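>> received
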Amino acid sequence: MLAQGRASLAPPIEQCANRPDMLPVEFSVSMTAQDDIASVAAQLAVLTQTVEEMAGQLKEVRERAESERERTDIQQERIDLAASELSGVSDRLQAAADALRESI
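>> returned
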């Protein structure tokens, strides 16, 4: 966006309210190449830091998901074992009931 010889390389200030490190970086048409490079380098540093933070957050989410999956697998194994034991108990009860009926 060019206005009165100035342009912004960052989002509007409203979008940066919670990120003081992401204040809009403006440059003027009369900026030197060195100033322009410094401005872009600063933005790249902020972007790099943001990406690193996001990578850390993603790693935490993955670790929590893996932990939850392991917990779910353990619970399913316990459920399967309990169902198998219950089936065995049911079979023994049925056999006992059949034997009792025959003896009467």
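>> The radius of gyration is 33 Å.
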